[in-house]
Amino acid sequence: MRGYAGVLIGNLVLAALAGLAGPVFLVGAYVAWTEGAEWFLVAAAGGIGAVGTALIPVAAVRSARQSFPRITRRDHVTELGPAYGPDTCVVWAPVSPRRPAGARLARADVLEASLVRYSPDGEATFTTYGGNHDPAEFKATVRLRLRVHDEAAGAAGTEGAADPGGFEVTEEFAVPSLCLSAITAGRLAVLVDPRDAPTPGKVTVLWPRSLLLAGTRTCRVIDLDGRTTEVTRRVGRQLEQMRISMSVGGVALDGDVIDLRRLDADTAARYAAVARARAAEPQAPVTEPGEETRRLTESLPGEAGDFGSVPRRWSRRGGHLARGRFLALRGKTTFQDHGPVLDTLLRVFPADGTAPFVVSRRMTVPMNYLSVLHHTRDVVLRVGPGGGSLAVDWARTNLLAGVTTAEVVTHDGHRVPLPRRSDALWPLMNLLVAHGLSNPKPVLDLRRPRMGAVSATVLGIIRDAEPDVAGAGR
Q1: Which residue among 3, 20, 131, 299 is the one 20 to 30 A from 169 at the CA level?
Q2: Rounded distance, CA 287 to CA 182, Å?
Q3: Class of residue 34 by CB neighbours under 10 A (exposed 0-12, middle 13-18, buried 19+)
Q4: Cα(187)–Cα(144) distance, rounded to whole angstroms?
Q5: DSSP assignment of 359-428, as one string?
Q6: Least trusted range by pLDDT, from 40-54, 147-161, 202-216, 278-292
Q7: H/E element holding 347?
Q8: Cα-Cα-Cα-Cα dihedral sign, residues 84, 371, 336, 319
């Protein structure tokens, strides 16, 4: 792709400047040889120069690959095993803080959320912290108003208790980027300090466990008879499972699976008892009511969503779009201002209907996309001519994911807003690509002459996908 070539050339120039010592040593070795210097001095200078010069293109390619995460055949993964099902999403977030003695695990509903600050220094394209997966600089500070469902605290008369079953609290929290969707979903796992603690009633958010409670991270349990049960968004059961896990020092998930046959007999029996007691528990909603009061997406960095550009050469040579779905996202120690650098597993669904395949790729995932990860893990991929390479198109992805809302303007000027994550978005994107029509904004204006060939099809797609959208056929 032209974008990758441009990034590679730019990085090659930078690497050459940074590695100028290599060619200088080579020149020095040549001059020393012509003047009859000792052979070992010539060999040493030549060796250093050769290694330094050889590293220039290697550094350029590695840097370009990090800056422009193109997916190629060498990124394919051949075997995943049963730990990754068709709807699996595994998010490896930073470890939760150590549990204070006597602290109680509880559910907290997010009533309101607002961004207080997010201000990394922005001086480096990539910032790496040796051994630190959770630097404070790359966390957004968010003010949360929570209702904590802690019956013990309510019964004890904790300050601010609004009913016997819990209390409200408003505080500022530093939120890891990978865990932003738990706020949008509206469900958090928290610890409440006991009455005899130095800070009685203090609320500590367990961010990785909140991803489980929110349903961003999926969870399945294999019982002692080998039967698999979907536990995602079974909030009561997951809280009980978390209490068991915390009491025994942790229970590891293999992908999104807890296999009771691999646990000790006592722990497995406790899990089985919870499963029996919670067998009829329904799934909680994908997001709790009132999401707009918790939505931080518009305040977070990341690309705005749009229908995307269509380069002529790419389109004419057979470039097209495909969909992918994240199976796993693992935090690293490297960050960019607009999002963390993650190791990802991505299932790709080819546009020609052939069998899906899985790729493993390190890439930067924008924070505004991470804030809606509980709604969708889908991404839009730009497929190069011949299908040899793919790249995540974050502008189209963020429109498809509902980070940005789309709108269509009909011939008479009527504006048709499309719901977030509308089923019309994907066919509209493909229609524009098929006709070589760029529209790098979220508003599709059918009054423009170049849209004449597709306007009737656009309105038909909207009517089929969103029959309740008023005025789509005007």
Answers
A1: 299
A2: 9
A3: exposed
A4: 12
A5: EEEEEE--HHHHTTTTT--EEEEEEPGGG-EEEE-HHHHHHHTTSS--EEE-TTS-EEEPPTT-TTHHHH
A6: 147-161
A7: strand 339-349
A8: positive
What integer pLDDT is reported at residue 386 of this predicted model? 84
Reported pTM: 0.85
271: closest CA among 225, 233, 216?
Answer: 225
Closest of 258, 203, 210, 262 to residue 233, by C-alpha: 210
**Cβ neighbour number for residue 459 with a 10 Å cutoff:** 18
Contacts of 450 (CB under 8 A, 6+ apart): 437
At position 456, the amino acid (one-letter code) is A
Q: What pLDDT score was predicted for residue 46?
A: 64
Quote the longest CA-to-CA distance of the chain: 92
Residues 6 or more apart in contact with residue 373 via CB below 8 angstroms? 89, 91, 180, 181, 216, 326
Q: Residue 2, class by beta-carbon neighbours within 10 Å (0-12 exposed, 13-18 middle, 19+ buried)?
A: exposed
Output the six-digit token pair for 402: 């509902």
Q: DSSP labels for 164-216? A: TTBEEEEEEEEE-GGGHHHHHHTEEEEEE--TTSSSTT-EEE-HHHHHHHHTS
Q: Which of 7-16, 183-192, 245-254, 419-428 is predicted with the least confidence, judged by mean pLDDT?
A: 7-16
Q: Which stretch of DSSP H or E encloses residue 14?
A: helix 2-18
